[in-house]
Each structure stands twice: as C-alpha cells, then as structure tokens.
Amino acid sequence: MRLDKLLSNRGFGSRKEVKKLLKSGVVKVDDSIVKDPSFHVKPTEDTVTVHGDIIEYKEFIYLMMNKPPGVISATEDNNHETVIDILEVEDQLYEPFPVGRLDKDTEGLLLITNDGQLSHQLLSPKKHVPKTYFAVIDGEVSEEDIEAFKKGVVLDDGYETLPATLVILKTGIRSDIEVTITEGKFHQVKRMFEAVGKKVVYLQRLSMGPLKLDETLELGEYRELTDEEVDSLKNAHKE
Ligand code: URA
Fold first, then answer.
1. Do residues 28 and 40 make contact, with C-beta atoms less than 8 angstroms apart?
2. CA distance 47 to 73
3. What is the CATH number of the domain that holds 7?
4. Do 49 and 106 belong to one domain?
5. Any atom of ligand 1 within 6 Å of the Cβ of 106
6. With 161 labelled, which of 34, 49, 86, 234 sits at a CA distance of 20 to 30 A?
7. What's the pLDDT tens digit per position in 121-180?
8. Are residues 196 and 154 part of one domain?
9. Are 43 and 6 in contact (CB under 8 A)?
10. What pTM was computed for the model?
11. Ligand 1 neighbourhood includes 48 CB (under 6 angstroms)
12. Helix, strand, or coil here: 139?
C-alpha cells in the first residue's frame, strides 16, 4: 500500500496534505525517515510512525451499534441522519456500511463493517442466518399465531415466509414477544404480524447469528467487536 494512502486513510488529511507532512520529515518507516509519498509499505509488517507515534493500521473494522430510533440504516441520505453519520470520524475513515437494514423506527443490534465478504455471507439468502427480535404487539398474540409463524405466513405481496419461531413473553391487549426469522424481507417482522391481523408497535433486534446485542450499550452507542465475536460470525456461516 502507498504510504500516502495509508496516512490519508488514518486521518492525516488529503493526499496533498500528507505530501506536505512527508516533506517535513516527521514520518518514519521502521526507523528511517521517508519523504516519498509513493513509498510502498506493508501495513501489517512495517512500523510507520508520525512524530514518533505508531500509526496502527487495520484493514477491516467491525462495530456493533445499539441503533437508536430515528436514524437510517444507510451510508448516506440527503434528508436524514444515518448510522454512519453518528460514528466517530476515525471510524468513518474505514468507510464502513451497515450489514442489512433496520427500519428507521427499529432499535437494537446493527453490525457495521467494511468487510464486504462477511457482509455478503451474513446477508446471503442461502445461509438462513437467524435474527431474533423483541417486539411489542398491539393485540393479543395467541397459540394460533405461534402455529401460523411455525408454518410460514403469506405476506401482503403473496410471498410465503420461511418458518419462524415465535415466543410469547407476555400477552394481553398488548403482547411482548420474541421472534426469530431466517430471512430478511423488507419490513418482514411487521408484515408477518400484519398477516395475522396485528400491529408491531415497538421492534428491537436482539441478535444476528451468533452475535448478541451488548446490553451495556445505550441507544446510539457502539463498540468494536471482540476477536471472538468476529471469529464466531466468520465461522458460523461457512458453506
Ligand atoms: N423487520 C421489520 O419489520 N423491520 C425491521 O427493522 C427489521 C425486521
């Protein structure tokens, strides 16, 4: 990788600004001052320092966000704040994107990464990655609904869903439930409840494959995944 690209990626400004920085002689690669912007570095092997501070380089970033309501699961939007807008600038430098979408009003677990291969694996319809949601339903969720979800329900566009697991936590005029689905159609959970004549009034994602929402994260907070969490995601869905 070119030295100027690495420094630019790590937040040292545009290529032009990085060129100036290099010219001033404060950048070292393995103890030798380097001024050539096109100098080739092996980011995982060479030690690059600026003013003596080591510049850490990693190719991929993996973040778990507790998505707050009111922000869009997209990288850019002209009218609304996105989940990328609320990341720290140093994390935005990795050009991450959300893995799949949660509706604007949905809260909870959102994986944000720049690892396209992992994202592809997790979203592939062939892999049937389970996603579990907590929801509050306007209406009395019943045993019949559990049976209907187990068989698969027909959505408003005629699509018959794969079997889903519905667990009633509390029932009444409002019910608390957990539902696990293994596909990701547009507004799927809301439309599945519409198919049985009920309305989702609150939706929160709790897990995606082996990854569970870290309950210590406040809405809008995020953290890097641990190495174990990254490995579990990578290993869970190998073909
Ligand atoms: N299902 C929905 O209806 N909305 C979401 O945000 C996620 C799953």
1. no
2. 36
3. 3.10.290.10
4. no
5. yes
6. 234
7. 999 989 999 999 999 999 999 999 999 999 999 999 999 999 999 999 999 999 999 999
8. yes
9. yes
10. 0.87
11. no
12. coil
